[in-house]
Design brief:
Helix 3 packs across helix 7. The chain has 163 residues and is of the alpha/beta class. It has a single domain, classed as Rossmann fold (3-Layer(aba) Sandwich), CATH 3.40.50.2300. It has 7 helices and 6 strands. It is globular, with a radius of gyration of 17 Å. It comes from Novosphingobium humi.
Length: 163
């Protein structure tokens, strides 16, 4: 199991003032409010290293994200969930993976009583049938992967904000 922890260290008030001396006290307080917000743990189920890299980089830009554990397929994701050593608040699930694909994983998670977190499909597929099947199998949301970190950050920030 590959564990990726997303660190969200933010600038201190002093560093913020040094970097932006015209920043109002309210802007510093707003940044501190982000720190106090409940932070979440995410299970990322993604077999492609390049896609995982972009997703992890995007998640690093979201202060609400505390940690991310990566599974390379549905089988490994279920092992993580069943072990209960890591209890995610959200799962990001790719559809096309070896051993157990995203559709099967979604259906399996939906059938488990102990699973109390939403699953979001994060895939490159834009096929309407995939959107339908994902929803039928228990996906809360369906978003397509973005090639650039900033675009991925925007998409994931909207999802994480709702958790």
């Amino acid at each position: 199991m590959l564990v990726e922890h997303v660190l969200n260290d933010r600038l201190s008030d002093v560093a913020e003032k040094e970097r932006n001396p015209e920043a109002s006290p309210n802007s510093v307080q707003e940044k501190n409010a982000d720190k106090d917000e409940a932070r979440i743990d995410i299970l990322l189920v993604e077999d492609d290293d390049a896609d995982a890299f972009i997703i992890l980089e995007a998640l690093k830009n979201i202060p609400k994200v505390k940690s991310v554990v990566r599974a390379i397929d549905g089988v490994e994701a279920l092992e993580i969930v069943d072990a209960r050593n890591f209890v995610p608040h959200l799962a990001l699930v790719d559809l096309s993976m070896p051993r157990m694909n995203g559709f099967a994983l979604l259906a399996d998670l939906k059938a488990r009583i102990q699973v109390d977190f939403p699953s979001v499909v994060l895939t490159s597929s834009r096929a309407e049938m995939d959107v339908f099947r994902a929803g039928k199998n228990g996906a809360w949301k369906y978003i397509t992967k973005k090639e650039k970190v900033n675009m991925m950050t925007q998409s994931l920030r909207r999802i994480v904000k709702k958790i």
